[in-house]
Amino acid sequence: MIDLLFVIGSMSLFFAIGQLLCQALPQATMQRCELASPVIGFGLFGISVTLLYRFGVPIGTAGTAVVLAVLVASAVLVLRRWRTLSAAGPAGWAIIVAAAVVILLCLLPKWMGGAQFWVFQGNDQDQINYIAYSSAMRARSYADLMALTPATALDNDYFLGAQKMLMARPTVCLAFAALASLSGQPTADVSYDFQVVMQVNMLFAAAFLLVNCFPARLRTCVCIAAALTLGFFLQYVFDIDAWSELASLPLVLVGMTAAIAALTTSGSWRGVACCAAVVAAATASVLYFYPEAALEFALPCLALLVLVALRGGDAARRAVAVGVVGTALALMLCLPFWQATIGYLYRISTSTIAQPVDWWVYFQKYLFGGDVDYFGELGPTASNWTIVHALLSLPVDFVAGAVGIYFVLPTDAVPLPVRAAWKLALWAGLTLLLAGAARAALIEWRRDRYSRTSLILILALAACLLPPAFMIAGKFWAAGKALSMAAPLLFIALAAPLLTNTLPHRWQAAAALYVALHIGFGVYRPIAAANPTGIHYASPYPAVADPASKTELSWDLGTWRSELRRCHGASIDISAPVLERYVQMYLSELQVPWSSVRPLNTYYGTGTELGLQPQLQSPDCVVTTRVDRTGPGQTLIWLGRNPLLMDFLHGAAEQVDLVDVSPNLIELAGMHAVEHYGGGVLRWTDGDAQLRIPNDPGRPARKLDLALWGVRLAGAHLRLQVNDVDLFDGDLADGEIELSFPLDAFTTAPALTIRVVSNSFTTPQDSRRLGLALRRLVLRR
Amino acid sequence: VTADRRYIVALIAFEAVLLHGYYVQELAWHHPENSDQAGILFESYQLESLVRLNGLRELLIDLWGRHHLNGLLLPVEGALAGLLFGAARLPRLGINFAAFAALQIVIFSTVLRLTLRRDLAYAAVGLLLCEYTLWLGTGGLFDFRIDFLAYCLYGIWLCVALQSGIFLHRRGAIGCGLIGALLVLNRFIAVIYILGVLSGLLAVCLVGLIAMRRVPAAALRLRSRMLNIVFSAGVTVGICAPFLFRNLNSIFGYYVVGHLLGDERFFRAKEQGVNTIIEHLTYYPRSVLFSHLGPWFVVAAIVLAIGAAIGSLHSARRREPTADPESLLLEPLLLLGAIVGPTLVLTADISKSPAVGGIVGVPVVLLLVLLVARVPLSPVRAAAASACSLLVLALGVAHIFAQASHHRPEFKQRADLERLVDLSLWLMQVAQDNAWRKPLLSVDMISSSLAAAPIAATIFERTGQFINFRLALGNDMMGVERAKALDMISKSDIVILTSNPKPGIYPFNRAIAAYWGDLKAWSDQNLILSKVQRFDELDATIYVRPNARVRGISGDWLLHTGAWVGVPRSTLRKFPIVELTGAALPGALPRLPAVAATVDSAGGQQSIPATLRSLTDRYVIEIDASGLPTDGPELVRIDLAFDAFFVPKQLGINLDERELVMMAPAQVRVMRAVR
Which residue in B260, B275, B313 is closest to A378 by CB distance? Predict the structure, then answer.
């Protein structure tokens, strides 16, 4: 319920803000201008709270001030236009119903997947950064944050990160912090809701664009807008936890629509001026929320203006007016916080984009299908057919990924002939889809190259040129980001056969299927989110960077909230840095004093080490993923996710298999990652594996079973020790082996240290040092 | 049109002057780089020498009598150019230039004919000049190998195909077939490109025929096209097939074993930095875009596109109805096929080369220009569009001028390259001093400079003399076992060992690194260290097989007296054993002769130990000069005499009255000790 209230309340607030400007748009030449209101309102809200915060107003106060101002302004507006106000007609209700359905479908994954799903998706670090920095901005004023130094940051290291964020487009964090303050909810708890608000903005933005640029019916427009909102592209931006981008994309669409309306409005200059004002508001908002979008869209917009200007006459004057006035106003709005907007844009375009980064291998893997390992080295046994197969697959994989339907591609589990036939069919389908879009665009271009439809399709085409340009330049990550920014326009261009009413039905079929696939993907999301691990999609979708962060760690702090509130001090002992940061932030918001047992680091263990915090004298709570970390009288807040291990330690289970236990849970060394083999799990030791597990003398472990897979050096030697006592020391026979040892000698020991020592080897194909292949390592009572 | 001809001829003349100057300044002074170029030049120089010795029939022998791996005409064309113009590399590179000039003329006339727009015809030439292929060190105009010629001939083939109305006209189709044959005989693999493109076109025509069977005129045209396509392919295949069959084994070895089955292809890929599948798939698109087309081309293409966009504004004009509407579709399809087909074939090959992707350079130009021509041109903006086209030509001219004004990368290594020329001439001297007509060379690295072909080519370019250097060790990038390597250098006349480390991707280098010390020790022990040539990156130690020369040979025979062996005294100090080996002793000898070896010394004639052994297939004379004084004249003359002989006339064999003993030795070895 809180989620719904947050989303609906936020949308209403943005609608009210945006309506102040959008109601001035020329109703005669534009339709459904109210659709732009939530989007523009969001942008103006972001700018307002950012500037207020920048000049010393605490973020909670800033949010309240904006709400009060809007209430007053809206009241004045309503009173002035009381007579002209009317109830929503059938068309209005269609939009409201669509919005309700979209909001529900967007929130359902949170409800079905729980915290394990909603805390973060594909980009844990960025997501926790956004939440933590928002929390920091909510807690501290601009001046406080700017005064921090690495020494003072030892109290709370993520505050230092928030300080940096203040110079790097902080608006999305500030907007969220203000909304969270207004809602009175913990920052983390409503983070997903805030993302949903930004996602739902796309529905209004896309619908606004479609009804104003295409001759289609409102229902069709809303349906396609919903497909875009729910479909792959927005899910992707949502799931890579790119908040700023998610915030900016609807603004871009609204800004473009207003610009095109201004360029094609033959009415009064007042209408043009209103459109230019909306363009300026959208542009400024984009520069505040996500200046990088300017890199993607500046050139296409400029090309559009030049194209219209070349027409000469009134059109040229309008183009110049919209371009100059819109840009000038937007830049003026950026002046008070230049460093974090235009300054940031300059910095990122001269440094970050130029850096070669390989993030694309994970984030853009969806462009490379699921059955061919394009990034694997071609082995000496490979034949030319390997290349030919990959060669025929790549265009389908890549185009399917680029148009957002990677999920229809076959996986390598499908037999090759079926895969081949499947891809051939996809070849045909994609060709029809692209040809239909091209045909629709061509017909419109021939009909009237200065129509709104032509102009938006030209913009779409121009925007789609940047990703290949980046790709050709070898900037693959930038290319992938540019594609995700251009995606809404690409989607609209591909759906054009349904929107232009100029193509026969047979040409529309592929586009209809395409839209349906995106809607289907949106409807499937809640079902996928219900996965108990919290990982909703499989690779190549970037659903989670490190699956262990969800399968082994619990992110559901809500279930521990009552225990945490009772804590007078909490010691944090978590080796996973992202979870550690999340816990720090959560405890800070609950105002529970905390200290971390590990040195603080400016960025998840890869930044600068700040040093060890002064430790709490006698923390009564320990927040940890380990099973062996509580002292006497301390409350254990356990964030591990291995109930079998916990049950065994608490006496609820009679045995536990330690072969796949995570180093997050117990002391463990000398064991490689778990692999799947022969229908079970396999875990290589490096020749000297050690595990330490607590042992309750009241309910001691009495037996240790060791099972080995048959893959190892011939004549391998094993030495098995528990607490430095040899249980076995001898050569191993070939084949699979199962050994069992009594542990009666260790019943009183507080812990068992199990050591598996063997000779080791390496292979040309595997750089790891390999010892024994463990199949089971079971403790029994 | 006459004016256009003049302009194009003037442009080509300008290019000729510019490129000749560039050749003199940047290339003429050093050896031919790249293994492929050196190999083809070697063949061509050898052929020219043979023709000068034995007459023009050597050309026919080369075409039909020798086996060719990947093409047969280029060495012959090179030899003819050499015979015609009398110089070495310049006339051969002139073949590349002539082909490029022809391409410019043909592409100009083709675009003019198809688009009826002179500005676009000039733009096409400009785009061609903007391409970087011309300047590539590997596969460019100044690299005498089949790639650049194939680039030009493939482009001309496409132009003729377009001019023939996409095979609508029979004469054009035959012309196309002839040019195709020329291309295939220069580069065998092009047969796949040509037949692939023609097959695709045939399939498209067939589909078109089915779709338009109710439009009689269109169906008739499509039928004619299909027939002419088959006819054209027939001409190409008919001319080339005998040669292809004649060289089937070589082609199989080169393309099937080398490119489809063997391990070498993986190392060729690694050499180009290609490891993963995605790198394999994107190698040629990247190679074409970045290495062959290049930034000037991209800028020129954008200028042309902007011109088309400006030209199309305000245009309501539609394309005039044409008498052959199918060509509107067939033209871009042909060109797309001509781009995609070779790219797919090349990509499917695991082996990668930076030189071959350029084959699609001309179809890219043609496709771009024809697409621009399809954009309706507004009369109001035609001048702007034409200006853009002419700007493209200006960019092209500026590009070649800019490129010709730059030093090649080799210029930075000028000192090293001059040392290499000196070394080549020194090796020629060694070969001449030892009367080695086919000296066998071994090198401990895979090198495009320290190898038989570039050394022989350099010698020919500097002296006009062809010495048939052959390469034993260092000829194959795959690893060589230690024993085989030792065997190879033991048979070599000259061994070059280098000081640089032997890492890298070639198995040869890795293998050599493991036993390089053994090669060095063997060479120190058994060869004469004759020269150490220092280069910037490495020192090359040149060992020469110790040698002696047998004089006093009568025809091919040793007489019972009069033959003598000349050996430098310095050689005999280290290698006192001289071994002469020849064909088995003649049966006419009355008995096994005894051999006597004497040396003039200060005290008169001094006998030194010598033995003759008769084996089933050969004789061996061993002379032991270890007892000779270490000082004295540098050239030691060892006189040989035999105590048995036969006179053929006396035996009624023939009229020869000489006192023959045995055939002259086929091999002379000077050794440290008897093996």
Answer: B275
What pLDDT, on a 0 to 100 scale, did the predictor assign at position A86?
56
Longest dimension (CA), chain A: 97
Q: What are phi and psi of B103, to 5 degrees?
A: -60, -45
Across the strands, what pairs with A751?
A694
| Residue in A310, A378, A472 nearest the CB of B280 | A378
Residue A780, both tokens: 């029994």
Tokens standing for residue A129 = 């950064």
Task: Provide the CA A716 distance to its chain's centre, in angstroms.
Answer: 47
Which pLDDT score, from 0 to 100, does residue B22 have? Answer: 95
Using a CB–CB cutoff of 8 Å, tell me whether A310 touches chain B.
Answer: yes
Asked if A692 and A666 count as a contact pair (C-beta separation under 8 A), the reply is: yes
Angle CA A491–A546–A755, to nearest 5 = 165
- The span from the CA of B182 to the CA of B341, in Å, is 19
H helix or E strand, kind and range, residue B671 = strand B667-671
pTM: 0.81
Q: How many CB atoms are closer than 10 A to CB B650?
A: 11
DSSP-based three-state secondary structure for B583 = strand
Q: How far is CA B290 from CA B151, B243, B271, B280, B293, in A?
A: 17, 36, 18, 16, 6
Q: Which residues contact B30 (CB under 8 A, 6 or more apart)?
A: B410, B414, B417, B418, B420, B421
Which one, of A600, A658, A604, A585, lies nearest residue A627 by Cα?
A: A658
Tokens 């419109």 correspond to A444
Q: How many CA atoms lie within 13 A of A264 on its CB side?
A: 21
Residue A680, both tokens: 């079970």
Chain B residue numbers with beta carbons less than 8 Å from the beta carbon of A311 are 313
**Does any CB of chain B come closer than 8 Å to the CB of residue A378?**
yes
Chain position carrying tokens 């049109």: B1
Q: CA A180, CA A194: separation in Å to the nearest integer?
A: 9
B440-443/B470-471 β-pairing: parallel
Compute CA distances A602 → A128, A164, A637, whole Å: 13, 11, 25
Q: Cα B332–B326–B312 angle (5° rounding)?
A: 60
A377 contacts in chain B (CB < 8 Å): 275-276
A711 touches B: beta carbon within 8 Å:
no
CA distances from B247 to A173, B135, B188 (A): 72, 32, 10
Range B624-630 average pLDDT: 86
- For residue A156, give the 3-state DSSP assignment: coil
Residue A730 pairs with which residues in a beta bridge? A718
How many CB atoms within 10 Å of residue A718? 21
Q: Which two tokens stand for residue A2?
A: 């809180």
Span B537-570, pLDDT tens digits: 889 999 999 989 999 999 899 999 989 999 998 8
**In angstroms, rounded to a whole number, what is the distance separating the alpha carbons of residues B203 and B610?**
79
Q: Which two tokens stand for residue A69?
A: 């101002």
Count other Cβ atoms within 10 Å, centred on residue B621.
Answer: 23
Query: Each residue of A315-338: pLDDT tens digit?
Result: 777 778 888 888 899 999 999 999
CB-nearest partner of A374 from B260, B276, B313 = B276
Nearest to B600 by CA among B572, B570, B639: B639
CA A690: distance to chain centroid?
Answer: 37
Provide CB contacts within 8 A for A361, sequence distance 6+. Answer: A375
All residues at 6 or more sequence positions from A551 whose CB lies less than 8 Å from its CB, including other chains: A533, A535, A641
- Which residues, other chains included, contact B300 with Cβ-Cβ below 8 Å and sequence gap of 6+? B123, B126, B127, B130, B392, B395, B396
| Alpha carbon of B302: minimum distance to chain A alpha carbons (Å) | 13
Distance between CA atoms of A71 and A77, rounded to whole angstroms? 10
Predicted complex ipTM: 0.75
Outline where B86-145 has alpha helix (H). Answer: 89-115, 118-130
Q: What is the distance between the alpha carbons of residues A186 and A541, in angstroms, rounded to a whole number?
A: 30
